[in-house]
Design a protein that fits this description.
Length: about 240
């Protein structure tokens, strides 16, 4: 049975085959206001490979562009995907266009931040074994919105990809959380534009370069685990918010 939900978008990032769009469920209140809850939803298109969201499904803003983080949208959901490795995943009805409702501000993030006692960690800083989510203490989660930890850093560099036979750009978020070090890929499509990085891969250095950011304590990160790949799930930073 389908149901209409309001979702505050916290990620519209790059993924294989399309986009990864996720956010928190919002409840309408009187006076055109909304209460943003703690329930996450990651939108899956039931007609595509692994549920990737086609770009055109995300185009619903008044200026005919794709939804952006902090947009509030109305979506028709079908059923939970019941994926134990991605418990937040829901199929949406691709026949029903998404509707843009409003746009929040970064000031709204403080009230909906997650406060997990620890992040995903076993041994490696950038992955966990497939099935890790199933072993988590309730509630299991593959999505978090966190306040920037002390000492975090963005780094970027190019790296030779032996399978493709050419250099690829790498963007990394590195930090420690609850005593564990994390090093994750940044998939936010705004990264290069925000930091005015060169467009050509050849202009990127092979040695990691650290970016200087203003007010590092005021940032927020939307973090996610990817679907399983070769027995692992990779940690990613899907969105960064500069509050």
């Amino acid at each position: 049975m389908s149901e209409t939900k309001y979702i505050l978008v916290l990620a519209n990032s790059e993924r294989a085959g399309g986009r990864c769009v996720a956010g928190k469920v919002a409840t309408p209140l009187e006076g055109n206001d909304f209460d943003i809850g703690q329930q996450w939803v990651r939108l899956n298109n039931p007609t595509t490979k692994e549920g990737a969201v086609p770009y055109m499904d995300t185009v619903c803003r008044p200026d005919h562009t794709a939804v952006r983080p902090l947009d509030l949208i109305q979506v028709t959901l079908l059923d939970p995907c019941n994926n134990p490795d991605h418990p937040e995943d829901w199929s949406y009805d691709p026949a029903q266009k998404w509707k843009w409702v409003a746009t929040a501000t970064t000031k709204d993030l403080a009230g909906i931040v997650d406060n997990p006692p620890r992040l995903w960690h076993v041994a490696e800083s950038d992955t966990v074994p497939a099935g890790y989510i199933r072993t988590m203490q309730p509630p299991p989660a593959s999505l978090y919105l966190i306040k920037a930890p002390q000492g975090w850093a963005f780094r970027y560099f190019k790296e030779w990809n032996q399978f493709k036979g050419y250099d690829k750009k790498r963007r990394r978020l590195q930090f420690s959380f609850a005593g564990n070090y994390h090093d994750m890929s940044v998939t936010d499509p705004e990264f290069d534009r925000r930091f005015k990085l060169p467009g050509a891969t050849s202009q990127w250095a092979s040695m990691p370069e650290t970016l200087t950011v203003p007010n590092p304590a005021g940032w927020y990160f939307c973090l996610s685990l990817t679907p399983e790949l070769n027995g692992k799930q990779y940690k990613i930073c899907a969105t960064f918010f500069e509050a």
